[in-house]
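Practice problem 4.
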């Protein structure tokens, strides 16, 4: 049986290469709207973050998403990311 290739992506905060499923994608579309992309398939410029509260808080502190998405990222996005992670932990 053929082994499937696992897509790897780099976290913009920790700079670690991880499987795509272990990361959250945040995307900026053509209108400049920043949102969370749980499917990983939305059109636009994307940035990946490790699914960890510490990493999200560090990204907020350093404003890492602002640099990578080339857009002003509202604090509400970081709050959404934190609640997204907490919901995912409850489902496990």
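Answer key:
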């Amino acid at each position: 049986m053929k082994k499937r290739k696992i897509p790897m992506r780099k976290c913009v905060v920790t700079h670690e290469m991880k499987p795509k499923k272990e990361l959250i994608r945040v995307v900026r579309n053509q209108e400049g709207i920043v949102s969370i992309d749980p499917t990983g398939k939305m059109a636009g410029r994307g940035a990946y973050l490790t699914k960890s509260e510490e990493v999200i808080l560090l990204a907020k502190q350093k404003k890492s998403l602002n640099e990578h998405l080339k857009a002003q990222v509202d604090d509400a996005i970081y709050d959404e990311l934190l609640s997204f992670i907490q919901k995912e932990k409850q489902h496990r």
